[in-house]
Structure to design on (613 residues):
């Protein structure tokens, strides 16, 4: 069976796994965005709290993906749960760091102007600081997504969903029938998804960045 | 000391009207600093006047200004804004009713010009239609075409245009008072000059209470109805009108800060409104010619009067010759006056206008072109002579 025949033969399974992969990455990055924004907003004003938050996220980031998944299997069991937790944790660092950098990068004169015309703290955050920090946050989200795409493939190690299953099965029976086809299908699928997501971010970036601050 | 009451170094002016601001024994001490940034300041900012806080950096002028809208909370003292104790009002609510203009305008780059201007009305809960109307009205007020500029973003505007929008934003909810923190400091000299003139023209119409912070002496002399010169530690070295400060600097510090050349500065910064104008008979087109003739004959100049319209705007000169043998109303007789000069312009500008104009007499108008009096070269000459006299008397003082 050559590669194309393999693709045709496993069309349904591959589509299902690709969909699962994409859905997992999307949901994990979304969760990381919400958590990252909340933590970022809470800590950005205090340099010490910000350093602590990014430091913690940084430490998590340095744990090898396989090791983290392995560690998570103990409390969470096999399957979706450890994969989702691991992906969310990995996605957190770039998003959190960019949120803090973005919020601190807002011109203090603009915050002063906002206070001076009588905006409340909440309004300043929602109407001035977050919109101005948004392009930077979005860059973090983009990096996090690329990251989650790759690491998501490893989730198959903990019996997680997605295209990782193809890669791992292929590697496990290297030399056997379809081994290369499986690995290739999984890898190319991940790359294709990553490119698709990136294209989406370009579009989202254009749609959500106000014209006045677009590069 | 001179006879005018303005020369005292503490504020003595009345806070008349509705928009006045009063600082009473206000002190600000930042934590961890030995000397207070603002030390027991008491001053009254009269309603409808431009008061300039002038001083070198570190004199606490910006801090003093920021105490008024509570961007900085005072350590001690009382602040009254428009008759209300500012410390009793929610700070955000207070700030929505005090215009705020900063250097570089501080426009939000992700919002259109229109949205920027409409922010305060929006916070005050105005409906969309009213905000849109007000935005357009303000854009016209600051000389920007609403259709062209409403939907632009700040970065598409020049620095001067941005600061015009900044002023419009501050005026959006028609606050009685406005704080301006070196608003023109970052602009090139030509644009700065133009915006200063526009501010004076605006102020002529609006009559806001304006606190204006600057370190530029010329700007202070040009804009201020009153100037508070701050020394180190936020001591008020002198609080008086520009003329009084030029004629009677309170001490060496003030004199040094002004930097000499006071006589020329006086010409450059005294306004036509500050000199006594010539009074001539005022005539309406409907008045009886014979009665007018009698009034002109009795007047100081004895030969002519000025015809005003219903809104007291100058129209024509009317001489005894024009009225010779006329019965009934004055009507359309007489020659049109030259373009009037505004009471707000400086003596220097007025001199230039008078030299260029064909007629010897030029009417002076205030807000909405209302007639204020008449001026000739001789009027200005006398005023200058009088000022020189006063300066000489001051320097001759033991």
């Amino acid at each position: 069976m050559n590669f194309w025949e393999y693709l045709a033969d496993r069309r349904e399974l591959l589509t299902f796994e690709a969909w699962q992969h994409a859905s997992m990455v999307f949901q994990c990055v979304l969760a990381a965005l919400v958590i990252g924004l909340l933590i970022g907003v809470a800590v950005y004003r205090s340099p010490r709290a910000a350093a602590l938050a990014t430091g913690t996220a940084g430490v998590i980031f340095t744990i090898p993906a396989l090791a983290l998944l392995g560690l998570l299997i103990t409390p969470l069991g096999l399957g979706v749960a450890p994969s989702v937790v691991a992906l969310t944790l990995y996605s957190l660092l770039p998003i959190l760091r960019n949120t803090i950098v973005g919020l601190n990068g807002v011109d203090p004169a603009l915050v002063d102007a906002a206070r001076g015309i009588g905006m409340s703290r909440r309004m300043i955050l929602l109407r001035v600081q977050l919109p101005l920090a948004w392009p930077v946050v979005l860059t973090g989200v983009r990096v996090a997504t690329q990251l989650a795409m790759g690491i998501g493939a490893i989730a198959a190690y903990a019996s997680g969903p997605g295209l990782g299953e193809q890669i791992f099965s292929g590697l496990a029976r290297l030399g056997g029938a379809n081994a290369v086809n499986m690995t290739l299908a999984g890898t190319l699928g991940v790359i294709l998804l990553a490119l698709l997501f990136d294209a989406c971010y370009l579009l989202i970036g254009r749609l959500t960045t106000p014209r006045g601050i677009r590069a | 000391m001179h006879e005018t009451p303005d020369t005292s170094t503490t504020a003595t002016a009345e806070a008349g009207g509705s928009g006045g601001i009063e600082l009473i024994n206000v002190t600000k001490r930042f934590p961890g600093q030995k000397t207070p940034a603002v030390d027991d300041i008491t001053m009254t900012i009269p309603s409808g006047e431009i008061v300039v806080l002038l001083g070198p950096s570190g004199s606490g002028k910006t801090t003093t200004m920021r105490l008024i809208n509570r961007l900085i909370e005072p350590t001690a003292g009382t602040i009254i804004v428009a008759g209300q104790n500012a410390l009793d009002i929610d700070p955000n609510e207070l700030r929505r009713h005090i215009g705020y203009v900063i250097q570089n305008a501080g426009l939000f780059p992700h919002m259109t010009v229109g949205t920027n201007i409409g922010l305060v009305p929006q916070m005050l809960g105005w409906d969309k239609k009213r905000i849109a109307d007000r935005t357009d009205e303000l854009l016209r007020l600051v000389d920007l075409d609403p259709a062209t500029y409403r939907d632009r973003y700040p970065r598409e505007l020049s620095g001067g245009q941005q600061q015009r929008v900044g002023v419009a934003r501050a005026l959006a909810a028609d606050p009685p008072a406005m704080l301006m923190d070196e608003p023109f400091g970052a602009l090139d000299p030509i644009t700065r000059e133009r915006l200063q003139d526009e501010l004076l023209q605006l102020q002529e119409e609006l009559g806001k209470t304006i606190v204006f912070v600057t370190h530029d002496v010329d700007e202070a002399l040009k804009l201020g109805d009153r100037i508070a010169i701050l020394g180190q530690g936020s001591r008020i070295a002198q609080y008086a009108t520009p003329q009084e400060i030029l004629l009677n600097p309170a001490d060496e510090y003030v004199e040094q800060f002004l930097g000499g050349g006071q006589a020329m500065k006086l010409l450059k910064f005294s306004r036509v409104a500050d000199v006594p104008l010539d009074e001539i008979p005022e005539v309406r087109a409907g008045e009886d010619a014979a009665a007018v003739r009698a009034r002109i004959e009795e007047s100081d100049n004895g030969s002519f009067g000025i015809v005003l319209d219903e809104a007291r705007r100058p129209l024509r000169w009317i001489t005894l010759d024009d009225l010779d043998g006329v019965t009934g109303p004055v009507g359309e007789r007489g020659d049109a006056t030259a373009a009037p000069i505004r009471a707000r312009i400086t003596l220097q500008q007025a001199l230039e206008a008078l030299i260029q104009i064909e007629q010897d007499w030029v009417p002076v108008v205030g807000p909405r072109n209302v007639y204020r009096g008449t001026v000739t070269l001789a009027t200005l000459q006398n005023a200058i002579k009088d000022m020189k006299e006063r300066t000489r008397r001051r320097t001759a003082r033991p």
About this structure: The first helix of chain B runs from residue 61 to 68. The first strand of chain B starts at residue 21 and ends at 28. Chain B touches chain A at residues 69, 71, 91-97, 100, 102-104, 106-112, 119-120, 123, 153-155, 169-170, 179 (CB under 8 Å).
